[in-house]
Amino acid sequence: MGNIGASEIITKEPLYKRFELSSLDYSEIIEIIFYEGFVDCFCPYCGKSSIFSGKLDVNQQQEKVNTQFSLSSFPGGGGGTVKIFQKPELYSLNFYCSRHTNHILNVVYKIENGSLTKIGQSPSLFEIQRGVFKKYKTVLGENYNDLYNSIMFYSSHFGVAAFAHLRRILENYFMRMAHEQCKKESNWNEKQFREARFIEKLELLKNNLPETLIQNPRIYSIISKGIHELSEEECLLYFEAVKECVFLCLDDTIEENRRIKSKENIKTELSRIDNKLNNK
Ligand SMILES: [Zn+2]
Predict the structure, then answer these.
(1) Residue 225: its pLDDT value, please?
(2) CA-closest candidate to residue 105, choices 177, 179, 46, 54
(3) Which residues lie at CB < 5 A from ion ligand 1?
(4) Phi and psi at residue 185, in whole multiples of 5°?
(5) What's the whole-number mean pLDDT along residues 2-25?
(6) Which of 30-44, 69-83, 233-247 has the least mean pLDDT?
(7) Structure pTM?
(8) Which of helix, strand or coil describes residue 274?
(9) Distance 102 CA to ligand 1 centre (A)
(10) What's the pLDDT band for 93 if we cut at 50, 70, 90?
């Protein structure tokens, strides 16, 4: 399963994504379904980021010990894991906000048919991620709705729909800005651009698109594909990486805007001082 931990499954992975038990070892499964550590995420009740900590009740602690004991008594590794988790079972976890114990994050896992799935979460993945992405509202303007929808679809495990909205941000925000820049260039062929297909447009605008989006060949190849060419699995697989790229580009834009604003403020302040000195 790579290096994703129990906390990342809660803060990053959508509901209903299946993790095959055969791809995990005992300790990883135990760590996920009986996770007692910290979850660092946005608390929708506090309205700011917080640290939640997990606490198992007495029954769960006993169950954890029993499971560990049963697993250790099975010789021969992986086969034992599957035997232990053969019966469908639910595991629910509670995490408490460090600011207020009434702010509770609940997570429910189901083990069934050889796989582990997160089947419930409250507040939802969308709500806890919203704290991270709402800062892009000002910079994205009307395109913010696409970001909102994209993350909402992803948190419910709808890959193509999530990806389609992410692609619209690319098209209606980044490519539109790049197009405005390109139109100012003397050798720009607007007619050729208007008649081009999406992938050709992307190619024509390449030099004016954020480096983060075009630098990585895998990201570039995935964003240049038509939506109908992408499978549900492919969209889910690449969603996080492409979304992080978009966030990085938006962070750059925010930083750039902040610098421009700062420079303007300095200019205004200096001219205010000048005026004051001249009026003396
Ligand atoms: Zn809180």
Answers:
(1) 85
(2) 54
(3) 43, 45-46, 50, 97, 99, 103
(4) -80, 140
(5) 87
(6) 69-83
(7) 0.78
(8) helix
(9) 8
(10) very high
Dist CA 26 CA 84 (whole Å):
10
Contacts of 4 (CB under 8 A, 6+ apart): 12, 13
Q: Ligand 1 mean position to 132 CA, how many Å? A: 15
**139, 253 Cβ separation under 8 angstroms:** yes
Give 251 or 212, the one with higher predicted confidence: 251
Element spanning 229, H or E: none
Structural domain boundaries of the chain?
6-123, 130-264
Q: Which residue has the tokens 């992938």?
A: 199
For residue 95, which of 59, 126, 66, 128 has the smallest C-alpha distance? 128
Q: Show the DSSP H helices in 53-174 as ranges.
A: 58-73, 78-84, 125-133, 137-140, 144-155, 159-169
CA distances to 55, 98, 103 from 226, in Å: 46, 45, 42
Residue 203 in this model has a pLDDT that exceeds 80: yes
pLDDT value at residue 1: 45
Contact 165, 149 (CB under 8 A): yes
- The SS3 assignment for 115 reads strand
Measured in Å, residue 12 CA sits from the centre of ligand 1 at 19
Contacts of 204 (CB under 8 A, 6+ apart): 182, 192, 193, 196
Q: Give the model confidence (pLDDT) of 217-266 as tens digits.
A: 888 888 888 888 899 999 999 999 999 999 999 999 999 999 999 999 99
Distance (angstroms) between ligand 1 centre and the Cα of 44 equals: 7
Residue 64 near residue 121, CB atoms below 8 Å = no
